[in-house]
Amino acid sequence: MSTSIAVAVLGAAGRMGAAAVHAVEQAPDLELVAAIGRGDDREQAVRAGAQVVVDLTVPDATRDNVRWAIERGLHAVVGVTGWDEDALAEVRDALAERPGLGVLIAPNFAIGAVLAMRFAQVAARYYESAEIIEMHHPDKLDAPSGTARHTAAAIASGRASAGLGPVPDRTRSDPDGARGAVVDGIHVHAVRLRGLVAHEEILFGGVGEELTLRHDSFDRVSFMPGVLLGIREVASHPGLTVGLDGYMELD
């Protein structure tokens, strides 16, 4: 007889958090033991016997939440963007003191978005040009999105493995920043529109052709299979994993 995984959700009052609470409650192999919103005592997760904490809060809170989870001996599944290399290094250092713990920080939990990032890494080897357009709702706090940054890194890795140099761009004047941000050598354009949820277009250009990879999340329920995968797998992957693809055996 299998034992269910005890789960606590931080940020349970938000739209992603509420969707995660519902998904965990509906999963037969998981048990929701704490739904913690802003202002609630997160220690109730410890008192309730949580094994995995899902952090779906905000960038200003997530670093402290992960440190707290590690200190309490809890695995963590994190869906908050805004993590830089210094912050990730802090997590690795903290986990070095807790070798059995796993932390997953995922820029995107949608399975299709993860696949699009991996496909982009493959395609990047064969195209001279590449750019990213990421589109989200106007309440999103960061830009470019974590997904776009992760995608740019994947494209840069694919280009480097193929020995490709910088993408061609002879722009000399762009006082208003129309060419967008440059992440790992790839131009990234962020759109914020009411009515959108999370969308990404990855554009590749070669002589006489264009390849477009596009992923659309129309509802936050699209992220829940990835959240549940993270909860189920995090204990089996000690240390820090960045990106849900680390749990998906895509190699």
SSE arrangement:
Elements: E1 5-10, H1 15-26, E2 30-36, H2 43-47, E3 52-55, H3 59-71, E4 75-78, H4 85-96, E5 102-105, H5 111-123, E6 129-136, H6 146-161, E7 181-183, E8 186-192, E9 198-206, E10 209-217, H7 224-233, E11 239-242
Helix pairs in contact: 1-7, 3-4, 5-6
Structural summary, described in words:
The protein has helices at 15-26, 43-47, 59-71, 85-96, 111-123, 146-161, 224-233, and strands at 5-10, 30-36, 52-55, 75-78, 102-105, 129-136, 181-183, 186-192, 198-206, 209-217, 239-242. The protein starts with a strand and ends in a 9-residue tail after the last strand. The chain folds into two domains: 5-105 and 220-247, NAD(P)-binding Rossmann-like Domain (Rossmann fold, 3-Layer(aba) Sandwich), CATH 3.40.50.720; 111-217, Dihydrodipicolinate Reductase, domain 2 (2-Layer Sandwich). Helix 1 crosses helix 7 (224-233). A six-stranded parallel sheet has the order 2-1-3-4-5-11, with helices on both faces. A five-stranded mixed sheet has the order 7-8-6-9-10. It has 251 residues and is of the alpha/beta class. NAD(+) binds at residues 11-16, 41, 79-81, 106-109.
